[in-house]
Amino acid sequence: MKKIALLGSTGSIGTQTLDIVDHHPEQYKVVALSAGSRVDELVVQANKYKPVLVSLATKDLADRAAPHLPSGTRVAYGEQGLIDVAASTDADIVVTAIMGSRGLPATMAAIEAGKTIALANKETLVTAGHLVMKRAKERGVSILPVDSEHSAIFQCLNGERAQTVKTVTLTASGGSFRDRTRDELAGVTVEQALNHPNWSMGAKITIDSATMVNKGLEVMEAKWLYDVDYDQIKVLIHPESIIHSYVEFVDNSIVAQLGLPDMRVPIQYALTYPDRQPTPTEPLDLAAIGKLHFREMDYERYPALRLAFQCGRLGQSAPTVYNAANEIAVARFLNGEIAFLDIERILQQVVDRHQVCAVDHIDAIEEIDQWARSVAAKV
Ligand code: NAD
Ligand code: MG
């Protein structure tokens, strides 16, 4: 039986992870859960799975949950609560389904504790990929991708030697506004931006898909997970989201991974790797689909992706700044404070104001992250 700790259990990835658990109850035991502010949902989950530990964002929320928890379940809160969920139980695997760079300390704690990481929380690798990967290697900890593109690449690379990889191509659906020109983006609403054509996901990643920042974060995520150069990473628009990504080898052979867009496939693969099992998902019928479409990425249309490549290539503190500025810009857009196109303007301005420097410790990452947040909150 695999013991699972789940960070972000009430979110899109979190609930789909629990759905996988429900389909294979003999194989998984949920030992720890964490959520932000959705107390009622967390209480329901705790009574169903009876974990030893749950955590909420604040002490108030934890106090509200406490009387309703099963007798064997302890409740924690805040950053320390997240760290405890990630590292203080006997979990074998930690699913990081929390949003944003706030997942970093808990992920590092899980690595210290020798837990396998099923990584959905891409912001952690973007903001501190060099530190996370180095420590995981030192501790002999596997970081298994949950993101569909990275799971695809992982599956394509199975058993191949790194030297034989020519390029990796991340496919991009194009997000909510893929059929609009830049001029047509001026007055778009939050509601329109949240309406993703292929995937039902948390609010932040849905906005990131519309700005193409999500693909930018994924480019950096791929760099760290697969140790490829930025010149080897390509992005291709593929509106159907059937080919989840592919690898081209030195002999020009291309290996791709296909399936209907359903996150439960990559989530489960991270849980069962290197094994495979049936999933509660629909099979792909290519004859029924008939056609797949592809278009070249347009970096004028999606300048935030171009900026992501620039920040990735600059390295050091630049990706931390890109990620933190984006987290704030997206929150401001979702609050109705700024327009959609202001997200990328804010990103560019915060990156322009930043003097790139070395970040060789988590505290340094934290400091730069806070600086970028404070600037992004004002511009
Ligand atoms: P979501 O917003 O649906 O869920 C986020 C979870 O984090 C919720 O359980 C929420 O309660 C919890 N949370 C929020 N604030 C918290 C806090 N202060 N302390 C503790 N927990 C807190 O997000 P999501 O779409 O599930 O995405 C989660 C991560 O997975 C993101 O990094 C995203 O980029 C990545 N991801 C998501 C998808 C997807 O299909 N949703 C696909 C690929 C990668
Ligand atoms: Mg993805």
Automatic annotation (TrEMBL):
Keywords: Isoprene biosynthesis, Magnesium, Manganese, Metal-binding, NADP, Oxidoreductase. This is 1-deoxy-D-xylulose 5-phosphate reductoisomerase. Residues 258-374 form the DXP reductoisomerase C-terminal domain. Catalyzes the NADPH-dependent rearrangement and reduction of 1-deoxy-D-xylulose-5-phosphate (DXP) to 2-C-methyl-D-erythritol 4-phosphate (MEP). Coiled coil: none annotated. The lineage of its organism: Bacteria, Bacillati, Bacillota, Bacilli, Bacillales. SUPFAM superfamilies: 1-deoxy-D-xylulose-5-phosphate reductoisomerase, C-terminal domain, Glyceraldehyde-3-phosphate dehydrogenase-like, C-terminal domain, NAD(P)-binding Rossmann-fold domains. Pathway: Isoprenoid biosynthesis; isopentenyl diphosphate biosynthesis via DXP pathway; isopentenyl diphosphate from 1-deoxy-D-xylulose 5-phosphate: step 1/6. It catalyses: 2-C-methyl-D-erythritol 4-phosphate + NADP(+) = 1-deoxy-D-xylulose 5-phosphate + NADPH + H(+).
